[in-house]
């Protein structure tokens, strides 16, 4: 299980910093956010491409104690660690990277350059801190960075690519290009072989039909033999039949094997077959509605957490449950309660409202008891995932206790990625479904 370091770094580049940067640089918040979205995978990609560079590894190690994270806006542009690091990562392509980001996000080149320093500072500071917290030496940091190579390109925003930065994939991960060329050549050879075989089969079939015709014609010297018009039809049918059978035989999936690049990282290659994309259903937008609770209206989704919990309580489902075993399999996911990236104590804006709703429900049904569950996606170290999810569950429990319903909260548990269902290599948006907080009734 590999850690997606971009998820960690996003915690340093939240809405508050975006707002401050926009004000300081005189740009729109949307432009700043868009630029950061493009710069972050580019910088992580640069580090991954230099995962075995002693100078880069040394810079990351020093960053953990340099105070970079505490002064991203004020100290990043003049920090010698960042200046030297950018030169090592991108060389003479820094200008091209800045120009591409400025054009993509609609901000000035000066602002894009300052943001490049800021994002680089946030990146090395976060990776350095993670390495220090987890006792990673140079080899551990190198391995962590190498793990990022397989996901960088997929994290770039639409409209950007490594090539648009002048950092084509063939320059960063050259082995992948060689692998694709090899597979293309193999597929071409297979197709050529299949066509040649098909031709031989058709020729053989035609020869057999011709011999049969000649034999029949010798036995029937009349000028009205049906073979004069039937032969072309049979030849056409035979040709179509043998071509169809040959194509059916050769239509196999050419699966490329994993190869290792010069840094020892596995390069996952793709299937040579193509398929028709499945139709993706358009998500239905959720809108807050009034959820009635004993004459009081709570704001929540129809069919969301509050609506389901209130319906269950009013139906007598909780009261009639024989014991905890009858309740333990039904969890209610919070719709709005989210923690800031990497944090177990800071909630995203808008989270408090749903916690207040839960407090109101518990106060309206004082006999009801609950448990809190915390979950993460499949990326990262599992021990760290369990620790983070446990801390978040404890934080929710403490918040409910502070609101006066602590006696109704029987426990809180962090499950890490134990129940995650989305693959670790999926996009961040897809994996978000596994990063959640939930609540269930208990006895």
Description of the structure:
About 12% of the residues have low confidence. The radius of gyration is 31 Å and the shape is globular. Helix 6 crosses helix 8. It has 443 residues and is an alpha+beta fold. The protein contains 18 helices and eight strands.
Q: What are the defining features of this structure?
A:
8 strands, alpha+beta, two-stranded antiparallel ribbon, globular, 443 residues, 9% strand
Concise account of the structure shown:
With 443 residues, this protein is α+β, with helices and mostly antiparallel strands. The chain has 18 helices and 8 strands.
| C-alpha Rg (nearest Å) | 31 Å
Mean pLDDT: 76
Low-pLDDT segments: 173-188, 250-284
Structural class: alpha+beta
Q: Give the distance, in angstroms, between the N- and C-terminal Cα atoms.
A: 36 Å
Shape: globular
Specify the helix fraction band. Answer: 40-55%
Number of helices: 18
Query: Order of strands in the sheet with the most strands?
Result: 5-8-6-7
Work out the strand percent: 5-15%
Main beta-sheet strand count, sense and barrel state: 4 strands, mixed
Helices and strands, in order, run as HHHHHHHHHHHHHEEEEHHEHEHEHE
What is the number of E strands? 8
Chart the SSEs and their pairings.
Blueprint: H1 5-9, H2 15-25, H3 29-49, H4 54-63, H5 72-75, H6 80-90, H7 94-105, H8 109-133, H9 138-146, H10 152-155, H11 169-172, H12 174-219, H13 227-250, E1 259-260, E2 266-267, E3 288-293, E4 296-301, H14 305-314, H15 317-320, E5 332-333, H16 352-364, E6 369-375, H17 382-405, E7 409-414, H18 428-431, E8 436-442
Parallel strand pairs: 6-7
Antiparallel strand pairs: 1-2, 3-4, 5-8, 6-8
């Amino acid at each position: 299980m590999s850690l997606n370091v971009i998820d960690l770094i996003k915690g340093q580049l939240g809405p508050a910093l975006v707002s401050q940067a926009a004000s300081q640089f005189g740009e729109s918040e949307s432009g700043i956010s868009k630029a950061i979205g493009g710069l972050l995978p580019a910088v992580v990609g640069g580090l991954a491409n230099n995962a075995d560079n002693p100078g880069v590894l040394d810079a990351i190690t020093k960053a953990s104690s340099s105070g970079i994270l505490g002064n991203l806006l004020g100290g990043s542009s003049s920090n010698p660690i960042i200046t030297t690091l950018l030169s090592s990562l991108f060389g003479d392509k820094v200008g091209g990277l800045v120009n591409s980001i400025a054009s993509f996000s609609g901000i000035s080149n000066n602002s894009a350059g300052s943001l490049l320093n800021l994002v680089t500072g946030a990146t090395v500071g976060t990776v350095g801190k993670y390495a220090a917290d987890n006792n990673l030496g140079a080899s551990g940091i190198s391995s962590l960075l190498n793990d990022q190579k397989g996901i960088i390109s997929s994290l770039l925003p639409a409209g950007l690519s490594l090539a648009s930065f002048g950092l084509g994939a063939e320059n960063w991960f050259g082995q992948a290009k060689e692998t694709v060329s090899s597979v293309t050549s193999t597929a071409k050879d297979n197709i050529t072989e299949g066509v040649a075989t098909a031709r031989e089969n058709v020729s053989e079939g035609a020869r057999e039909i011709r011999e049969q015709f000649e034999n029949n014609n010798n036995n029937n010297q009349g000028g009205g033999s049906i073979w004069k018009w039937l032969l072309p039809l049979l030849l056409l049918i035979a040709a179509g039949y043998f071509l169809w059978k040959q194509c059916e035989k050769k239509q196999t999936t050419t699966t490329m094997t994993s190869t290792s690049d010069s840094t020892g990282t596995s390069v996952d290659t793709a299937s040579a077959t193509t398929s028709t994309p499945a139709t993706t259903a358009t998500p239905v937008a959720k809108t807050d509605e009034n959820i009635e609770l004993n004459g009081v209206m709570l704001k929540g989704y129809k069919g969301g957490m509050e609506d389901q919990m209130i319906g269950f309580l009013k139906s007598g489902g909780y009261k009639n449950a024989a014991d905890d075993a009858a309740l333990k399999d039904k969890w209610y996911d919070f719709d709005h309660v989210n923690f800031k990236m990497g944090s177990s104590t800071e909630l995203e804006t808008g989270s408090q409202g749903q916690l207040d709703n839960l407090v109101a429900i518990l106060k309206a049904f004082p006999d009801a008891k609950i448990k809190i569950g915390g979950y993460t996606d499949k990326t990262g170290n599992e021990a760290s995932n369990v620790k983070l999810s446990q801390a978040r569950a404890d934080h929710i429990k403490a918040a409910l206790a502070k609101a006066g319903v602590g006696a109704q909260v029987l426990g809180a548990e962090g499950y890490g990625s134990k129940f995650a269902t989305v693959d670790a290599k999926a996009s961040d948006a897809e994996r978000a479904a596994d990063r959640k907080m939930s609540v269930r009734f208990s006895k």
